[in-house]
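TICKET #2291
ISSUE: user wants both folds in one file
ATTACHMENT 1:
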Amino acid sequence: MEMNKNTGMLVIIGICLLVLFMGLLRQKAEFLLNFLVRGLLGIIGIYLCNMALAELGIACAVGINPFSVLTVGTLGTGGLGLLYGIVFYNML
């Protein structure tokens, strides 16, 4: 019974996100394009930073997942710095 409840909640959330996405697309196509470009460049930046830190022997890496892409897509390079700041803080 609980699985049906969770599935129903996920479907409702998905529909709400789809409606918001369609509204955003209609009103703010430029914003969406900028977000996607920042997200894509953020993924590339995370990958390159992880590789550079690994080459330097620093055992610190930011994972590439929807939350990190959302952070970098929204905040840009400041979000990339924020993610690495959090990881370095956790290393202390």
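ATTACHMENT 2:
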Amino acid sequence: MPQEPATRREAIERERDRKSAELKPETVSRPEAFLRDLKDKKLLERISYGYNGLRAAMGNMATGSGFALGPEFHREDLLGGNLTTRLTALMSTRRWLKCEGEATLPQLAGGNVVAGVHALHRNYSSVDYYGPGPDSGRGGRSTYRFEDTRVSAGGGWRVLRFVRVGGRSGYVWTNVGPGDRKGAISADRLFAEPVLPGIERQTNFTENTALLQFDWRDDPLGPKTGGNYVVQQTWYSDRVFGRYSFRRLDLDVQQYFGFFNKVRRFAFRAKAALTDVDAGQSVPFYMQPTIGGADDLRGFRAYRFSDRNAMSLTGEYRWEIFSGLDGALFADAGKVFPRRGQMNFAHLESSVGFGLRANARNRTFLRVDVGFSHEGFAVFVKFNDIFQPRPFGVSQIPLGY
């Protein structure tokens, strides 16, 4: 039989020796082990970066498309960094198609001038539509096919360190047809002209855009501090019927506040899309602003509200869970309205929620948001930042699609 310790010190040393003999290697759960590998092996960076410019593109399609996947070729180092090219072809689980290409000269005049060309083709077979105006009902969902092809050329000039001006001119071919979503009636069976302008016949447009930008974000691809204020005016001229010419003003204000070494931050955004027409003209319903979905009112279904004008407000609190993964709490508000004079803070729809953001090379490439509103809740998985921050360039598509 072991002898009793003679002193308290000897008892403490014996207990210490016993515990040392029983020590085992630390074990972690499978989810924690997966997250550690994600961080330590830089798996997120490897997936998104690709090889020699060729990579798999995911997402970057309109809300409601389903999961989108396709090849992409993207190089920013051609001609010694003087030429940037991108070619993308995406197909979604709902059979939506998007093909896009652009070539940009970003280093003209010492990097103060950028110029380029852009081409885009989209064929979305089942875009949701709930009717015009803020009083549309959730149960009145219909669907339509939206198809367009765009070609444009433009550029921008850095006037001052934080001030840029730009412009773009192009041509747009549009087509709208019956939607094919199961369980939803086609919009052309519910609405007719003039309730829904453009539902019976579509036209083509010339498109001319002027843009003014104040951008002092610390990193346009993954901002943590600073701001980005954009004013964009676009003129659409109906080249076929002379009935659907209109003007659109887009306002976008983003502000970021980082603290605790920028691992925690507040992000705010206010945006508005306002249209205007001359006598005898109309704004086609498929080119009117919409809110609801993954980019603004996240507690509502995609394209839940539509009218000639729209505004939305978003606030997020973001924090770093670990390198490569952020958490977020958010609140959204917004509304649509037929006349510009109704742009105010009365009768706003609202939603709140939480989300996760996976980052690679300081870019959010995967975002999961869960939003709640008086109409229920919605879950969105997107492959872009909620504010879609991007450097100044020629590919500033004003439509929300």
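RESOLUTION: both attachments delivered.
EXTRA DETAIL ON ATTACHMENT 2: The helical segments are 8-21, 30-40, 43-49.
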